[in-house]
Amino acid sequence: MVPESCQLEVCLAFDTYCKRTLRNEAINAHKSINRRKQIILNFSDLPVEEEYLFVNDGTLEPEADHLISGKLISNQLLTASINKLPDQLRRIIHLYYFDEFNDRTISEMIQVPRSTVQYWRVSALSKLRHDIEKNADDWADI
Amino acid sequence: MTGQTFEPQTQHMRKLVPFRVIVCAVAKDPEAMDKVIAHYNPYIIHLSNRPTRDEDGYFVRLPNAEIEARLISRLIHAVVQFKIKTRSS
Fold it and tell me: Which residues belong to any copy of the Helix-turn-helix conjugative transposon-like domain (chain B) (predicted)?
């Protein structure tokens, strides 16, 4: 059994120990948060209006047109061309350009070698190009 | 040391964690650990205060939950490592 005077000593030592530990840890925590604050800037802390924080160039709207190498290509024409592709190639185009997977992931998903995915993708693109070049003239000549 | 009395002992004792609780907490007893954390909770909240921007854009000091959690886990870690030393030992 520890005598009472020693108990008090232990209690005091424990109190000091805990307070010192807490204070040092608090200093560390505040420092690390300050350091993080210098690197990361929250949207809510930005001094500008919300409407300046994003740009909408309208390419995703159904009526949008793209002027590429002197030809006017509309989203409708692009959609029609993609829909004309065979199922397999259309699926590759969707996975690669719309869902943004890479070749390796796609090859694992549909159980074919990676080089096959690449070959299908390239052939799908060339088919698309032929189709669009053929039809773009019908839409508009700039 | 013989003639010395600990007059302020009761006064001290009120502000300190009881000896038995310390012994249990160091031996990783969860209830005692809860008592220790509850005892230091006001201090933890005081330390975790950070100037924060409120809804009207004014700076007010509010306790930060992240620092609070970090302090509590550090306290538990520290209590377990505490070594009880008496003069006899």
Answer: 19-83
